[in-house]
Amino acid sequence: MSVRRQHVRTRLTLWYGTILAAGLLIYGGSSSTVLFFQLRGQLDRLAIEDLETVEGLLTFGANGKILQRNDYHDHPYSAKMEERLMEVWGTDGSLLYRNEPLGTRALGGPPKPGEGVGGSYSERSIELADATPVRLVSKRHLLEGRPTIIRVGFSEKPLWDRFWQLVIGLIAGLPLALGLAGLGGYLLVKHTLGPLERMAQRAHEINAKNLSTRLDVENSQDELGHLAAAFNETLGRIEGSFEQLRRFTSDASHELRTPLTAIRSVGEAGLRRPGTAETYREVIESMLEEAGRLTRLVESLLAISRADSGQIRLVRSEIDVLPFVREVGRFVEVLADDKGQHLCIKGDEATWIQGDRGILRQILINLLDNAIKYSPAGGCIWVRVVSTNVQTVSVEVQDSGPGISSQHRDRIFDRFYRVDEGRSREEGGAGLGLALAKWGAEAHGGSLELLCPPGGGSIFRLSLPSHLRAEVTVEVHAAVS
Predict the structure, then answer these.
(1) Segment (H or E) for 384
(2) Potential cystine with 259: which of 156, 254, 294, 411 (Cβ 3.0-4.6 Å)?
C-alpha cells in the first residue's frame, strides 16, 4: 500500500521521522566535522609551540650533523601514545636531522617551494610510508648562521579515532532517537487528529433526514474548531436551502393544484348538465380564466427557476428614470382608475441609471400593483423620483392600508407568501411578485427593503446603483386623498 493511501497520522509520522533523521544526520555530521577541525587546530597550536621550543635545542656537531643538546620533555599530546616526529632539512635539499621515532620514514620529503618562507608556519596533513596520518608544521630557521627548515609532526590518528568514535556513537543512537521520536510523534498526531476523526464520524451520520445535527466544536480557537464551525455554517445553509426547497415545492404544488382543480370542476359541471350555448360559453370563459392564471403562475415559476440558475442575463442600457417611471405608470393607471385612485408622478428630471429596462419595468409594475391593491378606494398613488447622492438609487412604494405587522415583515419577500391568507387569488396573486422584484433589485447590484412608517401604510424601497452619472431615488407613495 502506498504512503498516499495510508492514514494521515501515519504519513505525518513518516514525514516527521524523515525530516528528523535528516536533521540529526546534518547536525551529527556538522558537529563531528567541527569537532575534528577544532582538534586539528589545537594540534597545530601544540605543534607550533613544540617547534618553537625545539629551535633552541638544536646545534651543529663536529661532523656537520645537527644534534639535539637535550631532549625536550614529552609533549602533552604524545605523552601516552605518540611521540614527536621531527626532521631538519637544509635549503639545498640535504637532510640534516631525523629523530628516532621517524626511523627511516621520511617526513614529507625534500622542502617544498615557499615552505616556511617569511617567518610563518606551514601546516599540512601527510601520510608516512606506513600510512600513518601526520599533521606537519614547518618553518624556516637560521641555525648558527645556516638556513634550515625544521619540521615537527604529530600523528593525526588520535583525532581520527575520536572523530569516528563520535560518528559511530551518533549512528548507533540514531535508530533509538528516531524510534522514540516517531512513537511520540505518532501518539501526538493521533491525539491531535482525534477531533478530526470524531468530526468525520459525525459527518457520516448526517443525511437529509437529520440536517439539524451539528459537529461538536471542542476548541473554537484552534484550526479544527474553525473547520467544525465552518462546516456547521455550511450545514445550516444546506438545511435552510432544503427547507426552502420543501416549502417551495409544497407551495408550488398547492398553487398549481388550485387552478387545475378549478378547470376540472368547471369542465365536469358543464358536462354533467345540458345547457345552452351561452351556458357553455360561460364555462369555457371560466376555464380560460383559470388557464390564464395557471399560465401566469407557470411563467413566474420559470422566471424564478431561471433566476436561481443564473440563466437570466441583464441587458443594460442608459435609462432616464423619470420618463421611464411615467411610462410604467401608464400600464397600471387603468387599475388605479377602477378603484377611483389617482396616480401622481414627480421628481428630478436629471436622474439617470444603467439597467435592464424589462426587469426594472416588471419590478415597478409589481410595486405599483401592490400599492393599488392595498390602498383604499379614492386614494392617491404618489411616485417621486429623487436623486439623493451620486451613488444610491431608491424606489419607495407606500400604500395607505393597514400596514404589515412585525410577524410578517421577515417573510414578506418569501416565495408564495401572503400576508393575509384569507385574500382571494384574484386579489392576492400567487405571492411571487415581491420575490421576483427582490431578485431583480439584487441582480442590478441593489436591494429591496420594507419600511413601516408610524401611522400605518407600508413603504417598499428599491435601491439601485448608478454606473454612469448619479444614482437615482424613485419613491412611490400611496395615500388616502
Answers:
(1) strand 379-386
(2) 294
- Rounded CA-CA distance 231/203 in Å is 9
CA–CA separation, 432 and 307 (whole Å)? 13
Residue 476: which region, alpha, beta or left (left: phi > 0; alpha: psi -120 to 50)?
beta
C-alpha neighbours within 13 Å on the C-beta side of residue 2: 2
User: Per-residue pLDDT for 423 more than 50?
Assistant: no
What pLDDT shows up at residue 71? 53
Query: What span, in angstroms and rounded, lies between the C-alpha atoms of 473 and 391?
Result: 10
pTM above 0.90, yes or no: no
DSSP-derived pairing of the beta strands 133-143 and 379-386: unpaired
**Cβ-based neighbour number of residue 459 at 10 Å:** 19
- Closest CA relative to residue 159, chosen from 27, 43, 75: 43
Whether 412 contacts 404, CB under 8 Å: yes
Cell reading at 433: 411578485
> All 3 cell numbers of residue 187?
501518539
Predicted confidence (pLDDT) per residue in 322-354, tens digit: 888 888 888 888 888 888 888 888 877 777 788
Quote the mean pLDDT of the chain: 77
Q: What is the pLDDT of residues 198-233, one digit of tens each?
A: 887 877 878 777 777 887 777 777 777 788 888 888
The cell 392576492 sits on which residue? 428
- Residue 266: the pLDDT is 76
Q: How many helices and strands (H and E) does the chain possess?
A: 9, 15
In this predicted structure, the answer to whether residue 272 has a pLDDT above a threshold of 70 is yes
> 172, 150, 243, 180: which is closest to 16 by C-alpha?
180
pLDDT at 427 over 80: no
Nearest to 474 by CA among 375, 373, 370, 383: 383
Helix (H) / strand (E) containing 438:
helix 433-443
Task: Give the confidence band of 163 by pLDDT, cuts at 50, 70, 90.
Answer: confident
| Alpha-carbon span 150 to 40, nearest angstrom | 20
% of the chain beyond a pLDDT of 90: 0
Which helix (H) or strand (E) segment holds residue 257: the answer is helix 223-272
Query: Is 385 in contact with 472 (CB distance < 8 Å)?
Result: yes
